[in-house]
TrEMBL record:
PANTHER family: 3-HYDROXYISOBUTYRATE DEHYDROGENASE-LIKE 1, MITOCHONDRIAL-RELATED. Keywords: NAD, Oxidoreductase. InterPro entries: 6-PGluconate_DH-like_C_sf, 6PGD_dom2, 6PGDH_NADP-bd, HIBADH-like_NADP-bd, HIBADH-related, NAD(P)-bd_dom_sf. This is NAD(P)-dependent oxidoreductase.
Amino acid sequence: MSKQRIGFVGIGLIGRAMCLNLINKGYPLTVMAHRNRAPIDELVGKGAQEAANAGALALEADVIFICVTTSDAVEAVITGEAGLLSGIQPGTLVVDCGTSDPTSTARMGAALEAKGAKLIDAPLGRTPLHAEQGLLNMMVGGGEDEVQKVWPVLEDMAENIFHVGPLGSGHKLKLINNFFAMTTASAISEAAAMAVKTGVDLENLYKVMAAGPLKSGMFDFCMTNAMKGDASNLQFSVANARKDVGYYMRMAEAADMPSFIAPATYHLLSMAKADGRGEDYVPTLCDFVGDVGGVKLRD
């Protein structure tokens, strides 16, 4: 059985890694041109085809993955000039792998369905290294028939795949996940800065908190930066964290659900971004909180 033809839009760090995995597993791959030529040229050199725009790419693909940062960017890929809608074929599946606003996801699903295509949301967990190895986590939202049609491709891309409900469910779950994660990171950052400010040794803080139920991956990521200045274990930017928590707050408003904690997390992330730290990794929030409080966490 021949493999489905794959189109891919968004060749950033994780998109590049996902494409390398697909090429290594024998999928016919077409990527959309981008001004950042290095990853495009690398993939073309390994056998991928290049399309000038999303509409041209849609003519060459059975399944199209979109891996861009914001819902506005997803909408531009789908409905913009020379977007997917200009070339999409009936029966094509489009998979949004970003962390998007569920309201936008519903609109884009309707726009594609009007052309005989279907949208699936499949936001990602894990790192570019996992992506290149085909070991991502995916939270998938979409109709049963569409998800089953694309499932063999997803199995070649991810170790853990969770079909969590109809279209939009993956994005909703990912926003809840990221709200909780970024709130945890914010709380740890304040705790670490407060410890130093009040004369509590960070090593002792770590030992005591890690001995109980507060220990977690996020706790270790943030405390490693607080103690050693190493934020590389969580390569997720403050700007992206702020975007995701903002989408979570929109979702809460649309659902008429009060959100008591998210505004505080969003405020901290916004202050850090305004301070020029938007591209810094989330574990560095402890340094920002310390700076605002007039204390350095490390020598």
